[in-house]
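Known limitations

Structure tokens in this collection are predictions and should be treated as such. Users comparing against experimental data should check residue numbering before alignment. To illustrate the layout, the record for Phenylalanine--tRNA ligase beta subunit is reproduced below. The input appears on top and the generated tokens appear beneath it.
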Amino acid sequence: MPTVDIDPDELRDLTGKEEKADEELKEDLFGLGLEFEGRTEDGEFELEFAPDRLDRLSVEGVARSLRYQYGDARGVHVPSTNSAEWTIEVDESVPEERPYVTGAVIRDVDLDEDGLDSLIQLQEKLHATMGRKRAKGAIGIHDLTMLKGSPATEGTPTIEYVGLEPDEDTFVPLDSDREMTPADVLEDHPTGETYADLVSEYERYPAIYDDLGLFSFPPVINGRRTEVSTDSRDLFVEMTGTDQWTIDKMLNIVCYALAARGATLEEVRVEYPDHEVVRPDLSTKTKTVAHDRIETILGIDLDPEEVIDLAERSGLEAGKDEDDGNLVYEVTIPPYRVDVLHPLDVIDDLGRAYGFNDLEPKYPDVGTVGGRHERSRLERSVREQLVGLGFEDLLNFHMISEEENYERLDVEPGEDVYGAGEPATIKGPYSEDFTMLRTWVTPSLLMVLERNTHRAYPQDLAEIGFTAEVDESENTGVAERRRVGAVLASHEAGYEDAKARLQALCRKFDVDLETPPTDHPTFISGRTASVVIDGEEVGVIGEVHPKVLVEHDLEVPVAGFEFDLAALR
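Generated tokens:
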């Protein structure tokens, strides 16, 4: 899960709760769904948050949520904006791969060291999540006093978003002291090398000019001339991307964070060749939620006034209405909430405001009491046996990226090997790290090993997890399976160790195991076998190939196996 670093003293200052002890703050944050993961070297809270609540990527956003939780703020707040003085003119030469731009002017912001650090973290976290590592949206923040706008009309300074040849012009990028062309930046600048693949195939590169020349090379790097410091009081925020909605929502989150610092927001006019828009777009949206559905989902009886109160304490607003004689609420959603897509998202907010810990458990009003499903009983039994064999039980995310699922294990999608099924991809994922449902468990286990190289060996890990792959023979078009995966990582781990554990597991469930040799790109040739249970090929076992180990920064041998859980029935 994504994490954000928050200074508890700054959080107390922004919420006005100076008397709050650290432990109280942790409890309050947990009530918002923010889990304390530890402290950074600087003593800040490292908080794990739900990746849909991108408005909490900064201390300002977290403080805003806490103020609602404390009852110190209520309802939807939309900051006022001054009329546009600046214009972004979009030239027809802009690369068609990155055609959209948005922006805002920020006046009278107070940026001390903490405020600047928070702004930089917010920028980086938005890049990593909603911006898909800058591929879908990239943020540029500039010191407005260092810009000189070309007067398109009297009193209206203008900057231009254009496309230029790789060697057409020069500027001094951040963290450099020499003039460079965009092509030079991609080859010789550390940041340019990191993000070169985003634009290297373009015929023309995105660029932003003021009257003095080139000052931004999105999505790669800004110019040094407009660098923001603690002395900056007026800012120009520009964002470019492949989707207007995405960059507009990213802009809203940044604007709200800066407004929390006392800044005044000013609109920017964006002139495309065929139309014009004014940004930021701080319009609200509404969702219709039925009263009886709220009560059914939360399992409690609520008066209409209680629902309205809970909505206001969630940073929303609710007005009563009727639909065919049924009580419903028209709920207003603030501009910074990019996660509210369905009435259930609203009900989740109402439940958090009520307090999930205050909900009393009760049996459902049905004639039977539930019990464990046969598959669940099998899963539990296999898990207990794996723990008895010395494995540490894991529960990883079902979602993953194509790179982690295939590329880093040297597997091609659709290849005729175990785990290489066609991916069930996510439409419009929030993060580039979670774009598909994993097709096998082994990639997740190797990711855990990669993140724990600082811990002692041996590390013997196992998971019984959900997997999915495209299968046209299924009614849904997707085959869903539970699979058993295990890895052994130590200086002495080998094929024989993995097979011994697998044999012991199969004996417990009275099934016949065979391991005929096979080839699999993730494992070493000659040290790999198919897992055949009761005559059916259901998995793979072997020693992980050195190139896969290197890819995961692992310096010890790893052996493992994976097979379909259903084979043990």
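For this record: The two ends are 34 Å apart (CA to CA). Residues 3-70 form one domain. Please report discrepancies through the issue tracker.
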